[in-house]
Design goal:
By secondary structure, the protein is of the alpha/beta class. The chain has helices at about 1-15, 40-55, 70-75, 75-80, 100-105, 125-130, 160, 170-185, 210-220, 240-245, 265-270, 275-290, 305-320, 345-370; strands at about 30-35, 65-70, 90, 115-120, 140-145, 145-150, 165-170, 190, 200, 210, 225-230, 255, 295-300, 325-330, 375-385, 390-395, 400-405, 415-420, 425-430. The longest helix has 24 residues, at about 345-370. The structure holds S-adenosyl-L-homocysteine and iron/sulfur cluster (SF4).
């Protein structure tokens, strides 16, 4: 989502004579787009600001420095107090005002500037206000935000506080953006949302559309592939599961975070489903689309997580046989109910559990990739690979695929034979 927001910020600034440069010391404006989800991600911003301060001391450009994203939203003025080189702080809900904000921090003398913190939660639709064309950045695989924010309030998570309440963009806005992306060369569209499958809204015909209906309608456009991330198990409808069978362009890949395999922990997390509810979704989706690659997110060391709870997490990994998954140590976030719970788990226990979990997931990913050796697959070539005459792309199952070939093939879907599997990628020859 931050990647998408960063693209949009670059697009808004383009008509104001900004273009991107390769090094921070060449920039007139530096925006750090930040993530608040875990403490480590949030703290990164301060080490990055320290680095920028050193660069600025040797640079007479005096670039404007802005902190955007959820750390901006959560910490506001505190960021300027801790790091006075920052001129502007804003959150994910106000970045459409970027040109006006930049203007308002200018003074007649140019430097020093006025400081501005803009973390109000506006009651207007950001997307309605977003200027700039989606045609400035060419991307074969393009991101499109359809849903933002979250009302689910999992006890560990800051998203409902930083990204605000759940909103779904109207289908007309989404379709218009999809067409712009396609005209700009997109072959794949990745629909984005904090809980993307909670999308629900007005359709082009003014009737209420479900997320599955939105995908079906978008699939009628001149696009080769459609994906969506991230889904919540509670919003996984039968219609959406069936879409993986019915809609050819919808790729056989499902990112469905479970977080834990323990019913007790899931309850404490306020996730709203059990181990067996989750398994039913996976089994049902596989009935419709047996080859679907399932991916997920896990948190280890949630307050009160016992060894038995952790064993249940390992059990769900073995049952689902994830093709891929992200896993994190629980990170206590200020203002969340879990941060006030008792029985926080010691750091070394979290580290040990994370290692065991990641080793198991790695084993599954390796096995999944290995099962493709000798098979023929379709690959969307999306960029040059490392080295001369090398290409890089994605399989339908979102595996990274590398092969020899000519860069004129970028943007094409080609048939290839898998010759080798690695831990996180496949090697192919073009057929
Ligand atoms: N809405 C999605 C996930 C969005 S947040 C869902 O509910 O499934 C992305 C991931 O960050 C989560 O799936 C979770 O695994 C991780 N995460 C969120 N808060 C965290 C925390 N406090 N500590 C560690 N990981 C966290
Ligand atoms: Fe955070 Fe996802 Fe839970 Fe929403 S559903 S609170 S984004 S983990």
């Amino acid at each position: 989502m931050n990647e998408y927001d960063s693209e949009r910020m670059a697009e808004i600034l383009e008509p104001h004579n900004y273009s991107s440069v390769n090094e921070p010391d060449q920039a007139d404006l530096i925006i750090l787009n930040t993530c608040h989800i875990r403490e480590k991600a949030a703290e990164k911003i301060y080490s990055e600001l320290g680095r920028l301060k050193k660069i600025n001391n040797k640079n007479d450009k005096n670039p404007k420095i802005a902190v955007a994203g959820c750390v901006g939203q959560a910490e506001g003025q505190e960021i300027i107090n801790r790091s006075p080189i920052v001129d502007l702080v804003f959150g994910p809900l106000t970045y459409h005002q970027l040109p006006e904000m930049l203007e308002s921090i200018e003074t007649d003398k140019g430097f020093p500037r006025k400081k501005l913190v803009n973390i109000e939660i506006p009651d207007i639709d950001k997307f309605d206000q977003l200027k700039g064309s989606r045609k400035s950045l060419r991307s074969i695989s393009s991101l499109l935000s359809v849903q933002e924010g979250c009302d689910k309030f999992c006890s560990f998570c800051v998203v409902p506080y930083t990204r605000g309440v759940e909103i779904s963009r109207p289908a007309s806005q989404i379709t218009k953006e999809a067409i712009e992306l396609i005209e700009n060369g997109a072959k794949e569209i990745i629909l984005l949302g904090q809980n993307v499958n909670a999308w629900f809204g007005k359709g082009l015909d003014e009737s209420d559309w479900t997320f599955a209906r939105l995908i079906r309608e978008l699939s009628k456009l001149e696009i080769e592939r459609i994906r969506y991330i991230t889904s919540h198990p509670r919003d996984m409808t039968d219609e959406l599961m069936r879409s993986h069978k019915d809609i050819e362009k919808l790729q056989p890949y499902l990112h469905l975070p479970v977080q834990s395999g323990s019913d007790k922990v899931l309850k404490e997390m306020n996730r709203g489903y059990t181990f067996s509810d989750y398994m039913k979704i996976i089994d049902k989706t596989r009935e419709y689309r047996p080859d679907i690659a399932v991916s997920g997110d896990f948190i280890v060391g949630f307050p009160g997580e016992t060894d038995k709870d952790f064993q249940d997490t390992l059990k769900i990994v073995k049952e689902v046989k994830y093709a891929h998954a992200y896993s994190f140590k629980y990170s206590s976030r200020p203002g969340t109910p879990a941060s006030l719970m008792e029985n926080h788990i010691e750091e070394h226990v979290k580290t040990e559990r994370l290692k065991i979990l990641q080793d198991l997931i790695k084993e599954h990913t390796r096995g999944f990739n290995k099962s493709f050796v000798g098979k023929e697959i379709d690959v969307l070539i999306d960029k040059p690979g490392n080295g001369e005459n090398r290409l890089s792309g994605r399989s339908a199952y979102l595996q990274s695929v590398h092969m020899d070939g000519n860069t004129s093939m970028i943007g094409e879907i080609i048939r290839a034979k898998v010759t080798k599997s690695r831990d996180n990628s496949l090697e192919c020859v073009i057929l």
